[in-house]
Write a structure and sequence with these properties.
single chain, 14% helix, 2 helices, alpha+beta, six-stranded mixed β-sheet
Length: 120
């Protein structure tokens, strides 16, 4: 199974995510494969949370802890950037399962870009 790249949130004990096969996307000049998906567009325009049974209309995408998965082709490793609040074993396991990373090399990074001010 291919590794996936994409974006995610953790809301109301639910991993809300959108993933794409890394193999279907082109690596940049540094060898990174990133999804063109944008948190703001998926949340506020496409209401992605509805696909997961959540009714969060008129909520802002940045009010919930979120992150992004990218793939480093040179190291054959997935990089998961996430709000530090999400660095919990049960949440990490959900991210790894849904992005097909359970049997792959994965590195986790907290990133101020994904800092959320709300609580989970």
């Amino acid at each position: 199974m291919n590794s996936k790249v994409g974006i995610f949130w953790f809301v109301e004990n639910t991993l809300v995510y959108k993933a794409q096969n890394a193999i279907d996307l082109k690596a940049d000049q540094l060898g990174f494969i990133d999804s063109p998906l944008q948190h703001q567009v998926e949340w506020e325009e496409n209401n992605i949370y509805q696909l997961f049974g959540l009714t969060l209309f008129n909520s802002d995408y940045y009010n919930f802890p979120r992150g992004r998965v990218i793939f480093n082709t040179k190291l054959n490793t997935s990089y998961v950037y996430l709000d530090k609040k999400l660095f919990k074993k049960y949440i990490v396991k959900k991210i790894k399962a849904n992005f097909y990373l359970l049997d792959r090399k994965v590195k986790f990074f907290t990133d101020p870009h994904y800092h959320c001010f709300g609580s989970i």
